[in-house]
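Hello again, I could really use a second opinion on something today. I've been staring at a protein lately and its backbone has me curious. Please have a think about how the structure follows from the sequence. I owe you a coffee for this, so here goes:
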Amino acid sequence: MGDQESLETLMKRYVGGEATAFDALYARTSRRVFSYQMMMTGDRTRAEDLCQTTFLKLHRARGGWIAGSPVMPWLMAIARNVFLDNARKRGRARVKVTASGDLPDQVDQKSLRGPTTGLRDAIDKAINALPPRQREAFILTRHSSLSPRQAARVLGISETAVKLRVFRAHQALRAALGAYQTN
């Protein structure tokens, strides 16, 4: 039953006290959470720590999950909050957050990587160069596979705002990667 079971069913079982349901939930979602943290931080060790913190917070907040509501947007909202909390604590965070907890429109240019070698490095650098709000919307929808509606819930903005941020991110990525386009 494990892999066929929905995340919502697993979460309901976990909230009900079944520890094995957590194991299945972790196995099915941890890669996406880690991948999100990795894309946001660019640091494997930090991403691993943030991933573990995300699941610790999920454990602590499991009683607040509303039965039947989608698990992934809720889990990704926890992951985002963990990232933002960590970024606030770090003096030299790659992404500086404002006092309200929002991501600023401009990326810290000193935090960008050096010269690229190859397409993969060029893609990574182009994604890192996106304004943080665009980058986060892009990562949630294109990399973490959330729908614009789910990403809007995570980010606390409208679905239209998510779509606009992703559209602008696509435009910026096309411009940045123009040299790699084929005819």
Helices lie at 7-15, 19-41, 44-61, 71-89, 119-129, 132-143, 148-155, 159-176. Residues 4 and 10 are 10 Å apart (CA to CA). Residues 1-93 form a domain with the Rna Polymerase Sigma Factor; Chain: A fold (CATH 1.10.1740.10).
